[in-house]
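Review form for a predicted model. The reviewer records the input and the model, then writes brief findings.
Reviewer: anonymous (R2)
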Amino acid sequence: MTDPSSAATGTDASTYVTAAEHAQGKSGKPRSLWSDAWRDLRRRPLFIIAGAVIVLLVIVALFPGLFTSADPNLKDLSRSREAPSGDAIFGYDLQGRDVFARAIYGTRWSLLVGLGAAVVTVLLGSIIGLLAGFYGGWLDGLLSRVGEVFFGLPFVLGAIVILTMFRNAGVDGALPIVGVVVLSISVLSWPVAMRIMRSAAIAAKQQDYVKAARALGAKSSRIVFRHLLPNTLAPVLVYATIALGAFIGAEATLSFLGIGLRDPAVSWGVMISDSRNYVRVAPHMLLFPAGFLTVTVLAFVMLGDAVREALDPKLR
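Model under review:
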């Protein structure tokens, strides 16, 4: 029997859907937090711009030969500190090396340090924070106090101590030095990820689905990895995205101080360090690598802000 109100308006009641049906989408399955976030992100210009910049940087890092044929370590002292020209659009540095080629190849090393530090920091901090938040009690107190000790260490001072110690131990070569820099950044940064994950785990373990899993006799390991972990990843993921850009800036800071990467590794921080005494006579040596660094950090911060707004329903 037709609803009189629908007949009066010329529509059928079956054409109306509830909010729950709308949330299920065309497939008939409920959309998850991640699918909703992806739908929201695709509509954000900030995310699209930041994503495009990051994709371009990844391509540059993986295939630098597509953007320059010059050798970043080829020295020609006759061209020392030459200004940008047709031969080298970014000019030459103090030792006559092509600044554009070095900026292109420096993308690989800078992103490698940032990505490595972000992965190690998030993995270490998330595991410790998840255990502390889920089990609580004396374990939570112990892990929290250990995190506070590392959190209280000044970043630059701690990095100087760690990197100097490894340097005195004879660590040399591009990849070993990268590993040491990643380790030093991660050791001093994991407490932030630990605090975020701990707070998320404490809130999540009070939810009904965790209590139901306990009542059904699920083991602690199953509750942690099947129920808690998927529902506590969002805030840590946001932190990792923003921290990746911050860690790239941290590598540049350490290299500028002379304790981070060094030749034969090429990074934007190394280039900025090489140009610090020649800013007035050869500003191009500083401006171009600093520009690459600024754009990269800004892109990751913009991406992190967009992801945070998409994953937090309160900010939509």
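Findings: Residues 1-31 form one domain.
Further findings: The chain has two domains: 1-31, 45-315.
Recommendation: see findings above.
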